[in-house]
Design a protein that fits this description.
Elements: E1 6-9, H1 11-19, H2 21-36, E2 45-48, E3 55-60, E4 63-70, E5 75-83, H3 84-87
Parallel strand pairs: 1-5
Antiparallel strand pairs: 2-3, 3-4, 4-5
Helix pairs in contact: 1-2
């Protein structure tokens, strides 16, 4: 088992989770499982963004979460969660 990672949610991602209970819970559960063991990443649709270094997207249904993993601090920073059409506009 790998080291435990801390998950930090941005204000935007917290707002999405609170507003969309059902889908927000799926993202919360996914990041919780990934933080427990990075081997769980293989169970999710995660890709590295080609345009930004060290930023990844997690797709669950029609929604995407953008996040960054900081190796030096063992942190997963969830930047934003939203629909496909809107999520990439903030980058």
């Amino acid at each position: 088992m790998s080291k435990l990672l801390k998950v930090i949610y941005s204000k935007k991602s917290k707002k999405f989770i609170e507003k969309n209970k059902k889908d927000g819970l799926k993202f919360f559960k996914a990041f919780d499982e990934i933080s427990q063991d990075l081997e769980n990443i293989k169970y999710y649709d995660i890709k590295n963004l080609k345009t930004k270094e060290n930023i990844f997207r997690l797709r669950i249904g029609k929604f995407r979460a953008l996040f960054s993993k900081r190796d030096d601090q063992l942190i997963i920073l969830v930047i934003n969660i939203g629909s496909r059409g809107e999520i990439y506009k903030d980058l």
